[in-house]
Structures are given as C-alpha cells and as structure tokens.
C-alpha cells in the first residue's frame, strides 16, 4: 500500500520526483455502526482515523507538511500540540531524518501521546500555559528562525487532511448527507469541506465542541478552555473563519456537548460497536446522539484518534480488574457471579 501523496498526487501540490515522507498513512476503514444507526434512526458510518500510523488523523496532514518542508530544504519542524500533532510530527520528522520540536501545555497532554513524541526523538518543551499560548510562541519562532511550522495553519496540512473526504466519497459512492466531527483548532473540518467541494459534494458539516472549550459556539475566544477531551481543549481555533464558512456554506452547524455526553458516547462506541477511540473523537458521536441526525439519512462520524492515546481516561471509566485465586472453582464462581 502506498501513502496518500502517491494515491492522490493529482489532487495535491506535489510533482513527480518530489521527496515523499510517508508511513503509508490514510486508507482508513469506514465502518457501518449498526447499533448507533438504530439508536439515531439513520445509516451511520464511523471513519476510523485512529488506524493511521501514529494513531490519529494528523498523519494525513503531516506527510504533506513534512514532505514539503524537506522539499524546501528545511532541517527542522516545529508545532504546538495537545498531543496528536506532537506524536505525528515526531514520527514523520524521524522518518525524514530531520529535527522535530514540539511545544505542549504542561500537564495537559495524554500520556500515550507524550510517550509517542518522546520515543521518536522529538524535543518536547512544556510551557506553563495553554495550547493557544503555545501556538502563538511557535508561530513567532517559525517567523524568526529557519524552522518550518507544521500546525494546521500550514496549508499542506489541510491539503493532506482533505484526502479523508475523498476516501469517504469513494466508499459511499458519493452519497453522504452529513458529516459529524470534533472541532478543536478547526483544521480538520476545514480540510474535509475543501475535499468535498473539490468533489462537488455538499454534505452538511456538523461540528461539535466540548462545552468547556467551545469558542465557535460562544462566538468569542475562551481564555481558559477546559474539557476531559484534551485533543479539543482549544480556546481560539487557528482556522476559525474557515470552519465557520464550512458549516454555514454546507447548511451545517456548530454545537456544544458536555464532557458527560462525550464520555457516554465514548463508552457506547466501545461497548456497543467495539470501537475504542480517544475521548475527543467521541465528540462527533456525542453530538449526533444529543441533537439527532435531522433529515439526514446517511451520516459519517469522524473518529479522529485511537483510544490508546489516552489510557488513563479509559481506565477511569470502567470497573477494575477482578483478583482471584489460581483455581478453577474460584474462577468459575467469579464468572457465574
């Protein structure tokens, strides 16, 4: 299997012979969710972006951003991150043989994501502040130093991420009424809309933010965003205007869901559909469960990252391990209750 640049080169700003830094990202499953479909009264599919190489959708944009950086002669890439971008940058920088630097909000990154960034050799800097402050710092750093910024303000990130829309269209024969997805820094919803428009498709773009980090819903930046869904704990999205255009132009909407609704959807997906995603990924499903599909008959929900990104949250949501003697009778008593 080839990476997404090779598969979609005609739709991407790369010529034959350009360097391609790839981990064979993309081509992720689109899974019918029968119990979710029954519950909301529509045909619902799950786009499993956690099946990308580093476990999140960020790999789609990172292959393009890092490939372009290498093509332009850059020897270092940098990003601000709540976790997934850091993990993806670290992996693709390692693959390219260039330096990777990530700036994170201290104490606000899930353990699984931090481990990925560190093991891949990235320089990880934790600031005493939030994601929005980290992004401001790295934007200034990239302007002043010979280092390439690969957050979603980088157009190559959006170009790569739009390929997920191509895959959904291919799998569903171009028939889709609505797309539900989490919204944090708003690059992904911007990218999906770009991809669909290139295909002349207009599904309603339904974006969902955590109630404690919902600047697009509130209509103003949130100075201290807070939510259990760390990947969307962002108070001032970099792609604010583009995201709002995607939702308004498609006849969609942006709404808020509570942490409790996110966790309910998170558990539902695991126990009823067998799909383990990180909490932020469940925001789109939480929105669908809370607000319903409207008149949409076919809906896709984007699950942006794998559940192993945030093992601590998973453990906190379930019962503990049952201790038992190493005897058949003891195990039988536990099994039979």
Structure, explained:
This protein is α/β, with parallel strands linked by helices. It folds into two domains: 214 residues, Rossmann fold; 97 residues, Rossmann fold. It is 42% helix and 15% strand. It has 15 helices and ten strands. The strands form two sheets. A six-stranded mixed beta sheet has the order 1-2-10-7-8-9, sandwiched between helices. A four-stranded parallel beta sheet has the order 5-4-3-6. Helix 3 packs parallel to helix 4, helix 9 crosses helix 11 and helix 12 packs across helix 13. The longest helix is centred in the N-terminal third of the chain and has 14 residues.
Features:
Rossmann fold, 4-stranded parallel beta sheet, 15 helices, 6-stranded mixed beta sheet
Secondary structure: number of strands: 10
Range of strand content? 15-25%
CATH architecture classification of the largest domain: 3-Layer(aba) Sandwich
Question: Any idea of the CATH class of the largest domain?
Answer: Alpha Beta
The gyration radius over C-alpha positions equals 20 Å
- The number of helical runs is 15
Unreliable spans are none
With strands numbered from the N-terminus, the spatial order across the biggest sheet is 1-2-10-7-8-9
Helix fraction bin: 40-55%
The CATH topology of the largest domain corresponds to Rossmann fold
Main β sheet profile: 6 strands, mixed
Shape: globular
Query: Distance between the terminal alpha carbons, to the nearest Å?
Result: 47 Å
Structural class: alpha/beta
Count of discrete domains:
2
Oligomer: single chain
- Mean pLDDT, to the nearest integer, reads 96
H-E order = HEHEHEHEHEHEHHEHEHHEHHEHH
